[in-house]
Amino acid sequence: MIVLGVTHPISWNTGACLVKDGELVFVVEEERLNRFKFSSRVPPLLSIEACLKAGGIGMDDVDFFAVGWEAGNKQKRKKRFPWNYLARLLPFDIEDSRVRFVRHHLAHAIASYFLSGFGKAGVISLDAYGGSESGVLGIGDGADFKILKSVPTKASWGWIYSEVTTALGFRFHSDEGKVMGLASYGEPDLEGADFVDWDRDVPLIDRNRFRAYLSRIKGRSKSAPITGEHRNAAATIQAVLERGALQMAEYLSGAGGGRKLCVSGGCALNCSMNGALLRSGFADELYVNPAPHDLSTAIGAALWVYREEAGNWPSGRLTNAFLGPGFADAEVEAALRTAGAGRYRRMDDVCGEAAQRLAAGEVVGWFQGRSEFGPRALGGRSILADARDDQMRRRVNDLKGREEWRPLAPSIMAEEAGGMIDGPADSPFMQMALMASERAREAIPAAVHVDGTMRAQTVAHGDNPRFHDLLARFRDMTGVGALINTSFNLSRQPIVMTPRDALATFFASPMDSMAMGDFMVSKD
Questions:
Q1: What is the mean pLDDT of residues 86-95?
Q2: What total of structural domains would you count in the chain?
């Protein structure tokens, strides 16, 4: 059975995926192909084409088309969401008998639950809005999933976070991660944040009270300095989000969700919230898929349709996000020749050469294998640096056009993670802010945030052999099996996809060298 999953064109992050006999085999975001950041409200035509090409199939070979959005006759506020017009932007007829529509937040939830490998778990999905709601809480039990609570759009947790993001001079649906990072520099004022009714199983936001609260925040222009008031506002909205998520986790635990928890929706990109959930005592294990934002609705919809049509469910755990397009060395070399790309040479040991350069203080671009999906670089399309040098935070942030106070994440060999992280240390997708150990604070200070956390990625050899080998070679040279790992892109750009994208970004930045397949590229 072949299911093509797509985001609806109204989505904030569009893309598509291919599921074959219940296995997720290919995922790509539209932004990686059209080079337009997020590609909000853009139909995922290039993504669909890439899925078909990867599967060696045509549209007639697809058994079902799964759309991560409610059907038009169930969609509220039709004047605001012109369903028929948007649906015509997809390369298939929405009246085709193969088309299946899946409730937006059900698709979000399934994308984490079915990929978690958990037999039973509570599930939280939260975003700004999606379909007729802004979130759901439910319990997955084998192939069954039951929604217990719906979060109304007028009480959206994602929306209030984005509104504060805008008030602080950052961009809506783009810079929420900046607010999360800034929060650690401020002091929260939960007493002043009087817009939540906490006396419920699931806390409820009062939109009118929130608007009054928002009016009390001193607005900031993009170029204005960040004041203590701004830092405190960031800390407050972060604390509100975390408290709300913790109360939801407590509710699910008491409702029979057990000791495992899955999180999805745009709010699941908040690593600090995820870390708080993991440390909360309501869950022993936490799973967040690599792309919990709107791309996950394509994935969840495809998996749910497979479950509905096949009568069984995919029960394996996804730990490998490298399901996008890949490029052979011949394609890499052709791009190098076409670009006249400085000096490059094929290496017998590209991992050893890259590790040596990193140990010597170089910032190295890393372009290897199939691309990862989701907003985090996981060792397929990465910019790497030595986390032992505390000055590397400033250098890498400058290189990428990021604010100097923003944290950078480490990738750590799975075998070394126990010594670097206090508490559970399984984080293959870099989606949780974990507590740095004393050793980590001493050994990799450039990757430890001011609050003592790290948005760490744990790298197992079986998930990414070449990246793991690089970390191992670096450890052999330095005694530390960890590196700064940030996405291979510059400010306001999507992560690179092709060799050509990587070369353009490399030569437009102060990166020192780049490892592309078996080739090492320099600028002189």
A1: 70
A2: 3
